[in-house]
Amino acid sequence: MIVNGKEYELKLHGQTFHCALDVTMKYVGGKWKSVVIWYLRKDARRFSELRKNIPDITEKMLSLTLRQLEADGILERTVYAEVPPRVEYKLSAQGKSLLPLVEEMAAWGRKKTKDEGEMVEVNRKPKQKK
């Protein structure tokens, strides 16, 4: 990264980054992280709620994404001592600080779709229990 004609590297948690955007993308990049943050922006959610809201994500990928976001300090996982156990995920203070960024990315996506595509209603049939 060049600042005032001088080259810098960013060091964070034992990793070297070449620009500030690279740091940000470590935490929100990839296919699912920003989507999970989006669905946690207003309320805490259970795993099953997130899975329902993000139908294209597999259970394994959702689990891995939640674990990574928790390890990165973006979300908090709360286990309630109930039978059966109830687990909820919510954004941490650090995760909430990402909301303006995520909301801007969503606004950009809506505008791009409006300008060059279309928004189509999806009528999903409820899954049949086996």
Explain what you see:
The chain has 130 residues and is α+β, with helices and mostly antiparallel strands. It has six helices and seven strands, in the order ββββααβααββαα. The strands form three sheets. Strands 5-7-6 form a three-stranded antiparallel sheet. The radius of gyration is 18 Å and the shape is globular.
Task: Give the arrangement of secondary structure elements.
Layout (H helix, E strand, L loop, with lengths): L1 E2 L2 E2 L2 E3 L2 E3 L2 H9 L4 H7 L5 E2 H7 L5 H13 L3 E6 L5 E6 L1 H4 L2 H18 L14
Antiparallel strand pairs: 1-2, 3-4, 5-7, 6-7
Mean pLDDT: 92
What proportion of the residues is helical, as a percent range?
40-55%
User: Outline, from the CA principal axes?
Assistant: globular
What fraction of residues sit in β-strands?
A: 15-25%
Strand elements, count: 7
Counting H and I runs of at least 4 residues, what is the number of helices?
6
Give the end-to-end Cα distance, rounded to a whole number of Å. 55 Å
Major sheet size, sense and barrel closure: 3 strands, antiparallel
**Helix/strand class:** alpha+beta
Question: Which blocks of ≥5 consecutive residues have pLDDT under 50?
Answer: none
H/E element order: EEEEHHEHHEEHH
Order of neighbouring strands in the sheet with most strands: 5-7-6
Radius of gyration: 18 Å
